[in-house]
Write a structure and sequence with these properties.
With 238 residues, the chain is α+β, with helices and mostly antiparallel strands. The chain has 5 helices and 9 strands. Helix 3 runs antiparallel to helix 4.
Length: 238
């Protein structure tokens, strides 16, 4: 995806039939068996990478901060400087991953402090013919005057950076690190790249992450957003 989509992660699909004694069948060749194992391992790697946003993996563009209100406030003050420099015009992308291989991607655009566009894409990453394959399962773009613009349907809501900081402080910083995996990070501009918690006894469909995955210092054009909508990439500019 407060939130900024309510971080709903689909559960694993259950098998159609219970495991049991197999009916007699021809033994697969070693080559087919090896290919199946390889495909399975690749699928697991892709699924693990798609969980990065949900599990709070550190962004390469951000530095870990002390898990405290003081550290968060200091970073927020840096963001105020950046916002002033950009005149409130910026674009960011947040991603929520699932162990099923689906990624929920939300792009939000601000122009002089006003929310002007929100793009949502639901991507399924898997393996096809032994190669990585990405399927666009849902994609749409909301602009000014549309109900989907601020939120309420698909992905995360269109929150400002200030609202993300507020949600981080209210919903994450009060979590006990003894019972939760927690993390806080931001880059030198004050862009919040990681603010998450996840209960240690929960493997999926739990916790929150208010971090930004990709940030762009401009209000990108409609033409670029429309091209992004048709692309199977999670980045605006791969």
């Amino acid at each position: 995806m407060l939130d900024r989509h309510k971080n709903i992660i689909p559960r694993y699909n259950q098998p159609d039939k219970p495991f049991g004694r197999r009916a007699p069948q021809s033994r697969p060749t070693a080559r087919k068996s090896s290919f199946s194992v390889l495909a399975y391992l690749v699928a697991l790697m892709l699924a693990a990478s798609s969980m990065a946003a949900t599990c709070g993996k550190a962004s390469s563009d951000g530095s870990d901060l002390d898990f405290s209100s003081d550290a968060l406030k200091e970073s927020a003050s840096e963001w105020k400087k950046t916002r002033s420099r950009l005149n409130g015009s910026y674009t960011y992308i947040r991603i929520q991953g699932s162990m099923t291989g689906e990624n929920y991607v939300t792009l939000v655009r601000f122009d002089k402090g006003e929310l002007t566009a929100r793009v949502y894409k639901r991507l399924k990453t898997g393996v096809k013919d032994g190669k990585r394959h990405v399927e666009i399962r849902e994609a749409w773009m909301a602009e000014k005057g549309m109900k989907r613009l601020s939120g309420g349907e698909g992905g995360f809501p269109g929150l400002t950076m200030e609202e993300l900081y507020q949600a981080c402080e209210k919903d994450v910083l009060n979590r006990d690190p003894k019972t939760n995996h927690v993390g806080l990070a931001a880059d030198e501009r004050g862009v919040l790249t990681k603010c998450y918690y996840s209960p240690k006894m929960c493997a999926d469909d739990c916790g929150r992450n208010y971090g930004i995955t990709y940030f762009y210092e401009e209000s990108v054009s409609d033409e670029e957003l429309k091209a992004y909508l048709k692309s199977d990439s999670m980045q605006l500019r791969p």
